[in-house]
Amino acid sequence: MAENGTSKRPRDDGGADATQKKLKLGQDLLPKPEGGVNYVEIDGKTCTHAVALPDGTPDASPLPPSARPGPPAKEFPFTLDPFQRTAINCLEAGASVLVAAHTSAGKTVIAQYACAMGLRDNQRVIYTSPLKALSNQKYREFQEEFQDVGLMTGDVTIRPEASCLVMTTEILRSMLYNGSETVREAALVVYDEIHYLRDKERGVVWEESIVLMPKSVRFAFLSATIPNAMEFAEWIAKTHRSACHVVYTDYRPTPLQHFMFPSGGDGLYLIVDERSTFREDNFQKAIAALTSSAADGGGKKGKKGTVNGKKSEESDIFKLVKMIMQRNFDPVIVFSFSKKECEALALQMAPLDLNDESEHKLVEGVFWNAVDSLSEDDRRLPQVGALLPMLKRGVGVHHSGLLPILKEVIEILFQENLIKVLFATETFSTGLNMPAKTVVFTNARKFDGGGFRWLTSGEYIQMSGRAGRRGLDDRGIVMLMIDTRMEPAIAKSMVQGAPDTLHSEFHLSYAMLLNLLLSETADPESLLRASFRQFQVERSLPALTQRIAQLEAERDATEIEDEEQVSEYAELQQQEAESRSLIRSMVMQPRHALPFLQPGRLARVLTSTESVPSGPDHTDTTHEESSQPSTSGRKSQESVWTAVINFERQGKADAGEGEAISGSKKAARYIVDVLANCAEDTLPGRGPKRRPRLVSAREPGSAAVVPVQLQELDCLSSVRIYIPKDLRPPDARQMALKAVAEVQRRYPDGVPLLSPEEDMSVKDSAFRKAQRKLESMESLLEKHPMAQAPDLEARLALWDQKQAVVAQVKAAKREAKAAASLILQQELKARRRVLRRLGYVDEEGVVTLKGRVAATIQSSDELVLTELIFNSGFKELSVHQAVGLMACLVWREKSDSGTRVSAELEGPVGALREAAKRVAKVAAESKMTVDVEEYVSSFRTDLCDVLAAWSRGSKFAEIMKMTDVFEGSLVRAVRRVEEVLRQATAGAKVMGELELAALFEDGITRIKRDIVFAASLYL
Predict the structure, then answer these.
(1) Are residues 940 and 812 part of one domain?
(2) Which of 411, 670, 932, 963 has the most CB atoms around it within 10 Å of its CB?
(3) Which residues does the annotated region (Disordered) include (predicted)?
(4) Distance between CA atoms of residues 155 and 270, nearest Å
(5) Is residue 516 part of a domain?
(6) Are 771 and 695 part of one and the same domain?
């Protein structure tokens, strides 16, 4: 229901349209909310609305609130969209609201209206964001419009008494722990970018602050599109005992077109049009062009090189940017997942000048106005000097390694359309609304710490959402550069998939526990019970209970004739298989097996561990014959015959490869190359490296040389075949494979094997014992009453199925038990044990002086720093040593500059490591999962001497020569050290150690200077 529009209830029959809208709200994951889903329509545009009601309010209206009578708190110079109008009506009705909409849809309108409401009603409004930079930008934006605005980010505090306060979420949490009067006065809190709640490191801050917020506060949550918006709203309704409305829109003001650019190609292929239709024909053409380019010698995505021996004229990215400029598709954001690659790609634009003379002067004016506040030395920094010529040509770079002031200059120039091409990392896609006409992805894959993977649909949606400027472009353009084959399903999932689900990353920390124990209004158990994570776990309980009942019914319905005897026979088979496995591991030890690994020796290679052995001689079967897995616990190995080519000892350089092959941390010491028949569909292509699926030599496939670990050999034959010296030609490999198949044909009862005792000299007592056990198992199986049953295999298969259901019942019951109990309960007990043993709380659980000091530390390891403070770790230190030591507590990234420290810091660093070792040992003894050595080594010393030099007054250019980290990363490290010093100062004052507090304050004074703490351009 809304002005100038209509509100419709979904049809009771749940028609297709209603179903589609429900899916957009995540209703497929949730029970239907009280009152269902409403559709709000204004001027032909629609949004969906639902409301989550707390228990005990069945009479509340499920419809969107009507507009408030009288003049609005703020007039806008444009017609509001349905989702904006509906969200504003919810706020005016005194309810909380979650607004989920695409990037650039106009969510900021709700934040602006919330501030205007607070000023009109003489109520305090808090706006909180995840980033200091975003808080600075919003402060500037709101201050220009409302004047009565303050800012609190830790670095800067401006007008803390203002009616509208902009702050980071960490500051808001600290104020809640400290019982701040400012928060108690708040009537409305705006959480921008609430989907940050799923951030692994910092998401917990959002949950803490929401749970700890006074129950009288109402919320406006602004988020990107999330499929489980209703689930989040129901958590808010339950936690704060008030209605929370969900206003959700998939409406994109500017529709997007998605193109694909194959590496080395010359054209773009439209794969998704503005109506969101996937064009599979064009996708296949793009993949064909990529394959053709690869066959011709590969593309030129990166820097200039040679193709087929000829010097390439232009790289792919240069060609693409040039085409974008020619077609007036600028401004363009080019996303790369590496800071170094961003800069390298930007340098390739050197031949392009995208700005005219007047724009050159404007860029120069903005740039020098910004950097004029810097000292002369800082203005001569290489990064500052290198940037201006590039910016004048309309090319920019934006990543976390840039100096903050330069990042802000680039943001301002981009907003003023003075940068036509911006090379940026993923972080540019979050925060302030800075759309472009075109977005380019330099790769469809990214490195996530463990390896390369395809982009998720959520990541793609977030970044591609920057394309298309509302009111300026009739469509946004997204271009995806690919250099690796991808399946249509992957492309569809990425480009048209659902956004990432909002899930909880709640976790415990010692500072959290100590602050909660000090709080009069909360305790750790109540915070855990009220967390979104606990809510999500508990929501799964009814479904789990139903699943358990279904599984138990399925289990009880499965009747097996003579089930007890079938079970006994199956268990004997399992013991037999285990004995065979033990014998094989003994036989395949290097000292026994290596002398027989001559070229041409037939060796049987294990291919799976899923089926039951058919007999004592392991009759050869194909992978297809063993494709039905058994989860009953009866295990054996399927295997295929291959021919040995050679073997090599696995050195340190190859350890990773050996582990990749086996999937085990205990890699074999020897790798055996075997000639095997591989299934065609699993042969490695241009995709990620993988092990092909081995099949019998008598099945269709392709002959290939495959590396396997020695332990993967099942047994060795006494037969050898002739192997050609050159196996590179496919025909040579195929002929050798035919010889393997011929051997199998000639020995229908089984290929003759080497005798472990007589031929391979395996004679130890353990082997003979295992042999006797195997013979005993075989005898018992042969004499078992079930051995002669004509339908034995059918009964065993049925028993396997039933055991699989039994295992599922056990797993579901464990899951249900965990869901019914408090999350993280065991970890909470363990952490409390640590705090008690280290003296942070006493036997009654009361926080000691030591604990009160640790509670002030939020930005580093609170226990290690507190241990140092209480063990006089800073007492004899100079201010430079203290600052250098603090660098160990904040720096976690690896760099190539080395970890050695100067002589003056060796002692303090040693004391820190001793404190860390003491904390880790107590944690391990208290049943916390912690690796002592790994924990101690996590305190890196890369920047100790750098920070010490900075505190002595060294110029920024001088300390940059001491390390290989990016300028922006170094600035962040210094700022974090300043933050920890501030918190340590507060801790020292709690102790009454004024001399120590003075040391830390002196450190703050010495490092808080020059370009590192240059004022934000937004302030």
Answers:
(1) no
(2) 411
(3) 1-30, 53-74, 607-639
(4) 47
(5) no
(6) yes
Domain closes at, from 820, 838, 864: 820
pLDDT in tens, 718-752: 999 998 888 888 888 889 999 999 998 899 888 89
Average pLDDT in the 267-271 region?
86
The 3 state secondary structure assigned to 263-307 is CCCCCCEEEECCCCCECHHHHHHHHHHHHHHHHCCCCCCCCCCEE
Per-residue confidence band for 911, with pLDDT thresholds at 50, 70 and 90: very high
897 has a pLDDT exceeding 80: no
CA distances from 959 to 235, 405, 508, 666 (A): 49, 18, 36, 43
Nearest Cα to 33, choosing from 16, 48, 13, 17? 48
How many whole angstroms separate alpha carbon 515 and alpha carbon 856?
8
The pair phi, psi for residue 398, each rounded to 5°, is -140, 110
How far apart are alpha carbons 160 and 162 in whole angstroms? 6
Q: Mean pLDDT over residues 587-599, rounded?
A: 88
Nearest to 170 by CA among 192, 145, 152: 152
Residue 971, domain member (yes or no): yes
Q: How confident is the model at residue 15 (pLDDT cuts 50, 70, 90)?
A: very low
Collect all residues with Cβ–Cβ distance below 8 Å to 305 and sequence separation of at least 6. 311, 312
What are the helix (H) ranges across 337-395?
Answer: 339-347, 357-371, 376-379, 382-392
* CATH assignment of the domain containing 220: 3.40.50.300
Say yes or no to pLDDT of 685 above 80.
no
Q: What is the 3-state secondary structure (H, E, C) of 530-584?
A: HCHHHHHHHHHHHHHHHHHHHHHHHHHHCCCCCHHHHHHHHHHHHHHHHHHHHHH
Mean pLDDT of 265-276: 82
Write the single-letter amino acid at 447.
Answer: F
Q: Determine the 3-state secondary structure of 769 from DSSP.
A: helix
Q: Is residue 752 left, alpha or beta, with left meaning phi > 0 and alpha meaning psi from -120 to 50?
A: beta
Closest CA to 155 of 974, 953, 795, 925: 974
Q: Which two tokens stand for residue 321?
A: 């940017």
Query: Does any domain span residue 515?
Result: no
- Judge contact between 643 and 601, C-beta under 8 A: yes
Whether 768 and 888 map to the same domain: the answer is no
Residues 360 and 390 sit within 8 Å (Cβ to Cβ) = no
Indicate if 810 and 704 belong to the same structural domain. no
Q: Which residue has the tokens 């390896």?
A: 451
Residues 478-533 have pLDDT tens digits of 998 887 777 778 888 888 777 888 888 898 999 999 999 988 777 888 888 888 98
Question: What is the rounded distance in angstroms from the CA atom of residue 69 to the CA atom of residue 110?
Answer: 18
Q: Are residues 296 and 349 both part of a single domain?
A: no
CATH number of the structural domain spanning residue 862? 1.10.3380.30
Asked whether residue 510 is domain-assigned, the answer is: no
Of the chain, the percentage scoring pLDDT greater than 70 comes to 85
In 3D, which of 124, 118, 111 has the Cα closest to residue 161?
Answer: 124
What domain range includes position 816?
538-561+791-820
